[in-house]
Structure formats: structure tokens, C-alpha cells
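sorry to bug you again but im stuck and you know this stuff better than me. theres a chain ive been looking at and ive put its sequence and its fold in C-alpha cell form underneath. id like you to explain what the C-alpha cell line says about the fold, in plain words if possible. anything you notice is useful, everything is just below.
___
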Amino acid sequence: MSRSCVQMPSKEPALPNLSRVVLLVAAIAALLDAGNAHADAFSAGLDLATVAPSPAPAARSFRLADLSVFSPNAPTPSLSLFPAGQPAFGSSGTTGIPARQELDLSPVPGAQPRPDHSRFLAGGFTALFLGLEYAAFWSSEKMSSNFQVSNEGWFGPTTYAGGADKASHLIGGYIAGRVLSAGLSWSGSPPEKTELLSAVMIGATGTLIEVGDAYHGFGFSWQDALITAAGGAAGSILAATRLDDTITMRFGMVGIDYPNDESLAVYEPNHYSGEVYTIDLRMAGLLPRLGKPPGIARFFLASLTYGSKGYKWVDERYRQRRVGLEVGLDTYEIGLAAGLRPDTWWGAPLLGFLRYFRIPFTGIGFQYELNSRKWIGPNSFYAFDP
């Protein structure tokens, strides 16, 4: 929620990435609850897709020591994208596309539905984030009676963080939406309601935070509100269309370099130079949809990456906005192969971390540097390149 207007106070956290630390803690707590509720869901007659979806039976029995993963002729799992008899995307028939079984949200016939307490959880979610904003930012600022607006722009070269702040809002909205969706399922929300409610609450919460900013000197950024809502909506759409085993988003930490000439560093660095954001295409989900056994390819993904370097603490000539492509390790699939289970108190938070956090040096690729209009790489997006 950083602000680019000079006359407005900076909303940089006192500790680097404070908001992300809080989000990670919230995600771990939600994952723990979702893991504990996994068994309850079966007893209630509902197979829930949580923030870290349960692996298919074949994935649960697989271990890294099983050399069958290296076999290109391994049999294709006989799983379908949608439950038998359930229309796909409003069509009258079934798709027949193989996919991961854990994404089956259909109720078990004859089961008693769980009480729906999702309205309380959704309200508590919004109250929690507003409270965190107040504690981290608003409490130290004098409340104004004037509604201030901050027009931050999007991804341009003269924006506050070169667009990295907007990428942060997109990925943050997506991850928060997945956490909220897991919590709503745990609270008894029916599958057909969960994703819609999750998307609506992410959009509403992001907008309310911006309204709070407007009265605390930071200014209402409609760009931040819109792109946060877009991230939440994207996650819900992917889950509702059963594509969240194939397309995901992640946030990662990279290095912050100081220039050799210290005079070029006009301010202290902000955290955006040390972050990268990705939209991922996971082979573990894609190849079965194409009718191909994934084999060892299940441990890899292809990513669209974005990040900025040097905004606005380095001389303007050395600032970078990078958009790129990389190939990386699917650490979530590696975690499953290593024996982590999403229905255990310790496996759920670890898998959630591996699913949504890009571990440094687990990807390599090229980037196009938009300011200098040149290609950079191959690298791991970790440091400045000349």
C-alpha cells in the first residue's frame, strides 16, 4: 500500500515485508484449520478443495525413490476433470479431460450438509485485515476529515515502484483469496458459494483498506483496489473452473544490490527491489489435461515473471523494470513426492508455503528490461545485471 505522492507520508512498513509476514502467518493458520477439517469434511459428506489441495491417490503413494516417475510410458491416470454426470462450464456433457482428483468439490450423495457459518468467518477476515492495517500504518498517522485520492499509475517507468507494487497487490489478492476460500470451506460454506464469496470479500476488503488510507494521509488508490480485487477474482475463477492445479501465482524474495558507486543510491532501498512475482503454468496439471503422462516433468513449471530493481532509491538511469519467462522447480510437487500431506498439522503449512512462495534460485530464465529495452539473462532474477 505504498504511496508515490511526495506530499503524502510513506506507507512503507517499519519492518521489511511486514504485510507479507502477517499474510504468511494467516495462511499457515488457515492451512492448519483446513488440514484438521479435512477428515471432518469426509464425515460430513463433502470433499473440500483447500488452499493446498489434497493429492490424488497416485500422488500420495509416490516417493522420490520410485523410479517409475522417470518412465515416459507410465500409464495416464484415469481421472476426469469433472465428476461423472456433472456438466462442465454449463455444457450438457462431461469433458473427459484427465485432471487431479482432489479438485472434485461435488457433495457425496445422501450426506448431511455442515452448518454454514461462512458469514462470520468472512466478516472476521475483513475485520482482521483492517485491524492489521490500523496497527501497522493508520495508528501512527493523524486521521483527516478529508478524503484524499492518490493516482499512482500502473507499471510505468515513473511510478513509485515501477509497477512492482501493483504486481504485489495482484499476487497478494490471489493468495489471500486462496486462504479465505479454505477458511470458508472449513466454516461450512457450500462449494457453489465459496469461490464467489471469496472473490467478493477480497474486493471489498481491499477497497475498505484504501478508504482507510484516504482518511489517514496516504490517499485512496483505485488502482490498488482494482488490482487486489482482480487477484482475488482470478483465484476464484481458476478454482471454480478446476484449473488451479495448472495455473497458480507466487511471490518470491530476491537480492537487493547496492551500486558500486554509492553516490548513485539516493535513498535507502525499499523492499520491492527484493521481490519477484510469478504467474505459473504447472506441468503436473497441464500434461494430464493434454493426455500426456507427466513423468519427471511434473516437478517443473514455466513462469511469467515481473519485478523492479532500484525504484526509487537508485539514480533513475539505473532503475529496472523486468518482465520475463523462466523455467523452475515445482516445489509443491516435490513436497508431495517427499511425503508431505495436506491433511496433517505439519504438512499443510509446508505445502502452502511451497505452493505460493518462490524459493530463491529455483528458477532460471530471461527478462526484457523495459527501461533500457534490452534482454537480460540467463539468471535467477536475484541481482542487478548490467
Q: What stands out?
A: Residues 34 and 186 are 6 Å apart (CA to CA). The longest strand covers residues 300-309. The first helix runs from residue 18 to 43. DSSP finds nine helices and seven strands in the chain.
